Amino acid sequence: MKIVIGYLYSDLMNIYGDTGNIIALTKRTQWREVEVKLKVKSLKSKIKKGECDLYFFGGGQDQAQQLVASDLESSGKGKVIKQEVERGVPLLSICGGYQLLGEYYKPHKGPKLPGIGLFPIYTEASYDRMIGNLVIESMFDKLVGFENHSGKTFLKKGADSLGMVIQGFGNNGKDKTEGCLYKNAIGCYMHGSLLPKNPKLADWLLQKALEIKYGKQIELKPLDDTLELQAHQKAISRFSK
Amino acid sequence: MFFFPAVLLGKSISKLTKLLKIGGGSAAPGLYALKIEPELVNKLSQQIPKNIVITGTNGKTTTAKMLAHFAKAAGLKVIRNHTGSNLERGIASTLIDGVNLSHPWGRLNRHLGIWELDEAAFNSVAPKLKPNIIVFLNVFRDQLDRYGEIDTVVKNWCQTLQKLDPKTAVLVNGDDANVLKLAGCFKGKIQKIGVKGYKIRGESAQKLKEKESLDFEARNVKLNGLRGSQLSLIINHKSLIINLPLPGLYHVYDFLASFALGINLGLDSKKMLSSLKNYSPAFGRVEELPFGCIFLIKNPTGATQVFETIAPNIKPEDRLLFALNDNIADGKDISWIWDAEFEKLQPTTYNLQTICSGTRVYDLAVRLKYAGVDPKSIIVVPDLNKALKEARTGLKGRLFILPTYTAMLELQSILVKTGIKKHYWKEE
After folding, report:
1. In Å, what is the CA distance from B248 to each residue of A159, B61, B226, B231, B274?
2. Which of A85, A238, A241, B373 is most solvent-facing, going by the fewest CB within 10 Å?
């Protein structure tokens, strides 16, 4: 078996340690003796259907985000990613990546920045900086990360959140929701890095990637996650009030 | 009008905190004195004939300390914020401390002020110090929760520079594309420092189009392990060979900055270089201990540079002690450990005893596991004092200690309590 991970705009959209998610996905695949390949997809490059089994999209600086928004459209990558997610290909997007996969981003000034409309969400610039440790309750049990954003994201009617905030701000600091889940695609504000200390979520993404690729149910070989789970539990007990 | 009372108040607080041993007196005196005289820094610093400001993400303390060393070797009386307290209150405390009260109304009797300011403090404090020379060392991702994104840091520096006197001598790192952007914001002349054939691994997508011409260019750099480096530098058409007693390329940049500042001050280049022999590093930066060495790690680039420097020098009998804290001064966001290339420590560290400590000890242990360290050789000891004891028990080789900022301060106090060293604010 083999997993191909598509790392979207790794040169432009990688702040706040998002690389840690790629490290976690790669190592956890290798430790199970499954072959893993990383494909970087940045400005101007194309994506073919079926080329990647799992996508990761991190956060970036404001200027980079504008470049990326227009490239998603002009290179056709946005359209392909949307189609791939529709057929169940898993995706994890964080912060800026999450925002760009929504319907639009409304800055303080100037026109709306259109997203690819994968998630039924929209984001508005705000003058509040939402910074701190973030703990949520989700279908992957509790998740813990670190958020740092000023954009406020709102779910449209019928959209599923990734989870409910226990500690922190989440999507917008108001409605207690955090992130969005659509099919097997996840968008959220959790840096940290997210996957190394939330191994259950990491494995869910890997399992979905293999199941969609090979068209059958797959059980991942269990790993010794003693350290990962300690990091998970310590962070949750420390930051949940 | 509240100037003199402010200085007096600051001085008494400083005395008290030292007497009661509740700190080094590095922030509190300035904090309270500024409350009654907000113009304190402005007024006191103008009594000093020359002021130098050093800013950037990495290397501020080393550059400041080395420049102070050069200046003292030339017989100058120096004042600087040497405890790494680089916010306005730290500067104010240092200035208050330097005032001679036996002079009517209090005078500062110093030739040179050397001020390190962090990325954010630069914008508020530099205009008050009215510096004669400024150096911008570099800008990397560091504590995004405090400083914001790199683009924002550079934009704010740019706005501050536009307001400063065009006669100010401005030095920038010519190998750092982000810092180089400042050339467009300053009316006066800009001098560039750098290393031939090197480029800072930028945090910006924009690459240096072509090598900039450099005013201070290190050539033929040879890194000689932990002992230091050798380089050559052309000054007044003469090539000088320099033996730097500090390891790693990042220290070559710190040296270049302090040397270029020295030249701008009119210091003699030969005297500066000969004084290098008795230079001892700033605390926590390659600080040697009887049983090992401390290397401060605080952001991805700095940590990776430390890993690159020590990796080839680690022997199988050595041990590693990492301490990761998430206090405000460290940055509450520890995501950065995933950008720091702990993988560079491989394969030397695979079976090396690796002790982890600090408030985020488990995150650190996970990072090391994913960097390829065998989980069996990872020992988790949250309490730093106990971790240090554990690391030293049965130690046959050397202990490499890699703490974040507040862990380093904690370590200093443990070392003092165990009699291994004296108080750091008495080191100067």
Report:
1. 52, 16, 8, 12, 20
2. A241
Active site residues of A: 95, 191
- CATH number of the domain that residue B163 is part of: 3.40.1190.10
Inter-chain residue contact A23 with B338, CB threshold 8 Å: yes
Q: A2-239: which CATH number, 3.40.50.880, 3.90.580.10, 1.20.210.10, 2.40.128.20? A: 3.40.50.880
* pLDDT tens digits, B240-287: 999 999 988 899 999 999 999 999 999 999 999 999 988 887 777 788
Express as a percent the part of chain A with pLDDT over 70.
100
What span, in angstroms and rounded, lies between the C-alpha atoms of A111 and A180?
24
Q: DSSP letter for A57, please.
A: E
| Partner residue opposite B144 with nearest CB, options A148, A193, A235 | A148
Residues B234 and B341 occupy one common structural domain: no
Helix (H) or strand (E) holding B90: helix B88-98
pLDDT at B2: 66
List the structure tokens of B180.
Answer: 């180089």
Strands (E), A95-172: 104-106, 113-114, 121-124, 130-138, 141-149, 152-155, 163-167
Measured between beta carbons, which residues in chain B are less than 8 angstroms from residue A231? 362-363, 365-366
Across the interface, whether the CB atoms of A196 and B375 are under 8 A apart is answered no
Q: Which of B250, B278, B306 is the last residue of a domain?
A: B278
Q: What does the DSSP 8-state code read for residue B246? A: S
Do residues B119 and B37 lie in contact, with contact meaning Cβ atoms separated by under 8 Å?
no
Examine the pLDDT at B323 and tell me if it is beyond 80: yes
Q: Which of B132, B166, B159, B167 is nearest to B50 (CA)?
A: B132
Domain extent for B376? 285-426
Report domain extents, chain A: 2-239
pTM for this prediction? 0.84
Query: Quick one: B107 exposed, middle or buried, by C-beta within 10 A (0-12, 13-18, 19+)?
Result: middle
Q: Is B256 domain-assigned?
A: yes
Both B188 and B223 in one domain: the answer is yes
Q: Are B76 and B114 in contact (CB under 8 A)?
A: no
Query: Given a cut of 90, is residue B20 above it in pLDDT?
Result: no
Percent of chain B residues past pLDDT 70, beyond the cut? 87
Q: Is B378 on the interface with A (CB under 8 A)?
A: yes
Among B262, B278, B294, where does a domain finish?
A: B278
Number of residues in chain B: 428
Q: Do B138 and B257 fall into the same domain?
A: yes
Residue B40 lies in a domain: no
> Does residue A140 carry a pLDDT above 50?
yes
Note whether A235 contacts B336, CB cutoff 8 Å: no
CA-wise closest residue to B57 among B114, B135, B3: B135
The strand pairing partners of B319, in sequence order, are: B399
Cα angle B403, B25, B284 (rounded to 5 degrees) comes to 20
Q: Which residues pair with A93 in a beta bridge?
A: A57, A187
Quick check: is B15 in a domain? Answer: no
Q: Could you tell me what percent of chain B has a pLDDT over 90?
A: 55
